[in-house]
Design brief:
Largest sheet: 7 strands, mixed
Number of helices: 26
Strand content: 15-25%
Helix content: 40-55%
Radius of gyration: 35 Å
Mean pLDDT: 93
Structural class: alpha/beta
Low-confidence stretches: none
Distance between the termini: 30 Å
Strand order of the largest sheet: 13-14-18-19-17-16-15
Number of strands: 27
Length: about 750
């Protein structure tokens, strides 16, 4: 069934002619100009900054809270040959942030080690046992956290009390009580005056590097771009500058490991975009941290040994393949565990906790409710949460830290460790938050559409124009457009297990392909149903030819879906309500109705008509099976009735039990019709039938065949069968609706 995952909001606006003249200076078309105006970029200075990001627009790193303290302590450690530990994180942001910090310290001649915590043995953020090990065994003098730290009160307190200073560089949500670190470099620190609040962990690390080196090390921006895109922070202001430059550097990166990973991932080095990172590089880096020890990523991103880099890149790619299979299995299992509750807390002993954030995200798209996914290990559960836009999962649970062994995160994502006996209390806290904040949980997340797209008006040049507005991401979303009033020329499934859908659609004079990932099972629905598409514009190159292609983000049917399966064998939904034997088999009509058999009576027609008009019905399958096809035989012609009447007089007594087929063959009348004709003669008293013997009634009164009730019902049945067997399903549907109105 074609169901939209989002609530669409169409944002069509008119823009002033003066602005169009202005955008022409930047060689922008109408579509790109409309997007810029809608996003508040409306004067020449703003256009200049947005379309031509400049490193000179980067903010002074010393505006960050405690940056002066952090730089002074790090430089002191370097001057005094102290041992420094960079304590990072196991995701792509943490890996790149650690690599940036290591590169900067190496350049300054520091004695530095990097440790990325193991998701399974160390957990997220500062780990007390790990801190103890490095302080007691490696004699570390200074710990610098990157992409973590503010949630590590216990470990940071231990280090400071042990005489080891901790410099925290982080960007995660701040708890009510901050750890007693020597310095906390954080763009959202309450005492900070930094003008941009949304740096990623790697962005904060880069600002520290800038402050330490006293210049902006642009050669590190490929790593900054990867971490910033991967962590899905706002791609505005400073992040737009960092990522714009970083993607260009990434296309020509000299990092042996990154080059090899990009090659294995099939990246187009001549067209490196935010999607290269989001779909090819970041998932592979994250897969390592999700399934195994993340520390080889540091050698991949900072080392220069090509052979070792190739081995690490290959290993990471294999981990990513393994990750995909695990995600798919857990997603299927979790889908079967969903309830009607407003929040979902799901846990299982056989789930791999490294991928639960991904699964939670997929479930969130499916059900539009906050989802907590946990892996159970005895009485301890560890995992991740993902939430809808209007439910702040961090705020909902931060006030209940006493229920957790560990907790941290953002507005729409969190990580946690919980004792089994605290599950119900956590669920209650999440549900109570809905009431406390008076949240509306019934609606779908909003999908903003930039306008209606006419296929005749777009081309590859349109895509080039829109590309100038990139890099796209949070707060600068890739524009999505509404496509409607089109004809589906072809609909087919594709990809592994036919999981994806490819449409060929036509509107006006233009025909384009549209790809919809994850919707291969709906090939028949899209082939037969009028629908609308929410799309992004893309291109596809095949055999040297580049053509326009639409990437479908969401879709919705126009009205009730009517699917013709009269000549097809398909697997029908398990929750479908079936009409057969002139009745429906369920008292409650669900979303899917299957017209399995053609109604044979007026009462059956009434039951069917009532069923299809139920407001809950969104999809109707028309199988329309017919037991006896009278629409092929007709109700009998005058000539056929005359031939039968003449034959009766030739055989005054006829055994219809054993000789009916012979009579049908002799008269060249289909047997099912002959039976009806004999029943009509019996009704009109032309014959008498007793014990299988048919005898002529020579004293019968004269009657017209049309006087027979059986004949009248047969005529209606023939007409009804003709409609259900031969008419288009839309016509059948409209006729049934009309019949309800007439009744």
């Amino acid at each position: 069934m074609i169901q939209s995952n989002y609530s669409w909001k169409l944002n069509e606006i008119d823009i002033p002619e003066d602005f169009l003249k202005l955008t022409k200076k930047f060689q922008l078309d109408l579509l790109a100009s409309q997007l810029l105006w809608a996003r508040g970029i409306r004067d020449e200075a703003s256009l200049q900054r947005f379309l031509q990001p400049n490193l000179e627009d980067l903010h002074d790193p010393f505006l960050l809270h405690d940056m002066d303290k952090a730089v002074a302590r790090i430089l002191q450690a370097i001057e005094q040959n102290e041992k420094i530990l960079i304590y990072g994180d196991y995701d792509a942001d943490g890996m790149t942030a650690s690599s940036v910090m290591k590169t900067a310290l190496d350049e300054l001649g520091a004695e530095v080690q990097v440790y990325l915590p193991n998701r399974f043995t160390d957990g997220y953020g500062p780990n007390l046992d790990v801190y103890k090990y490095f302080i007691e065994n490696e004699h570390i003098d200074l710990i610098i956290t990157v992409d973590n730290g503010v949630a590590g009160f216990e470990a940071v307190s231990y280090a400071q009390n042990a005489g080891v200073d901790v410099v925290i560089t982080d960007h995660h949500s701040l708890p009510a009580v901050l750890p007693p670190a020597l310095a906390i470099v954080h763009p959202e620190h309450p005492d900070s005056t930094y003008p941009f609040k949304y740096l990623a962990g790697v962005g904060v690390a880069f600002k520290v590097a800038c402050a330490l080196l006293d210049y902006a090390p642009t050669e590190m921006l490929d790593l900054v771009a990867i971490g910033t895109i991967a962590d899905m922070v706002s791609l505005t202001d400073e992040n737009r500058v960092l990522v714009s430059y970083g993607l260009k550097i990434m296309a020509n990166t000299e990092r042996a490991g990154l080059q090899e990973l990009m090659r294995i991932a099939g990246c187009d080095f001549e067209n490196i975009t935010e999607e290269t990172v989001g779909f090819q590089i970041a998932p592979r880096l994250n897969a390592l941290g999700r399934l195994d020890d993340p520390n080889p990523a540091i050698e991949l991103l900072t080392g220069w040994d090509e052979d070792e880099a190739a081995q690490i890149a290959q290993m990471i790619d294999e981990k990513n393949t393994e990750r995909k299979a695990i995600v798919e299995r857990i997603f299927e299992e979790a889908s079967q565990m969903l309830t009607d509750e407003p929040v979902q807390i799901l846990y299982h002993e056989d789930w791999h906790k490294g991928v639960l954030g991904i699964v939670a995200g997929r479930l969130l798209e499916k059900i539009h409710k906050p989802v907590v996914m946990l892996a159970q290990e005895g009485d301890i559960l560890r995992g991740s949460a993902r939430s809808i836009e209007n439910y702040n999962i961090f705020k909902a649970l931060d006030a209940h830290r006493d229920l957790f062994v560990a907790f941290g995160g953002h507005k729409q994502a969190a990580g946690m460790t919980i004792q089994l006996d605290k599950i119900e209390a956590v669920k209650k806290a999440m549900v109570d938050y809905i009431d406390q904040e008076n949240l509306d949980m019934s609606g779908k997340s909003e999908l903003l559409l930039a306008g209606t797209c006419q296929l005749d008006d777009i081309s590859l040049a349109t895509i080039d124009g829109l590309a100038k507005l990139g890099p796209f991401g949070m707060d600068n979303a890739k524009p999505k457009f509404l496509v409607k009033d089109f004809q589906v020329l072809q609909s087919r499934s594709m990809g592994k297990d036919n999981a994806h859908l490819k449409l060929k659609i036509k509107q006006g004079k233009t025909t384009v392909d549209a790809v919809y990932f994850g919707h291969g099972a709906e090939q028949l629905e899209f082939e037969q149903t009028d629908s609308q598409l929410a799309v992004t514009l893309s291109s596809n190159t095949w055999n040297g030819n580049t053509s326009l292609q639409l990437m479908v983000e969401d879709a919705q049917a126009n009205g009730v879906e009517l699917i013709d399966i009269r000549s097809r064998k398909i697997n029908l939904p398990k929750n479908a309500v079936v009409f057969a034997n002139n009745t429906v088999k369920n008292d409650i009509i669900e979303e899917v109705l299957v017209l399995a058999e053609v109604p044979t009576t007026d009462e059956g027609m009434s039951v069917l008509t009532k069923a299809i008009l139920e407001p809950s019905v969104q999809l109707i399958y028309f199988k329309n099976e017919i037991d006896k096809a009278y629409y092929l035989t007709g109700a009998g012609t005058r000539d056929q009735f005359a031939k039968l009447y003449k034959s009766i007089y030739q055989f005054p007594e006829f055994d219809i039990r054993f000789k009916l087929k012979q009579l049908a063959d002799y008269l060249k009348i289909p047997e099912i019709l002959l039976i009806k004709m004999i029943q009509i003669f019996e009704e009109l008293k032309f014959v008498e039938i007793k014990d299988g013997l048919m005898k002529v009634n020579k004293q019968a009164e004269k009657h017209e065949i049309s006087e027979s009730q059986i004949f009248q019902e047969l005529q209606k049945l023939v007409k009804r069968q003709e409609m259900f067997a031969l008419s288009p399903v839309k016509e059948i549907y409209q006729t049934l609706k009309k019949g309800e109105v007439e009744n």
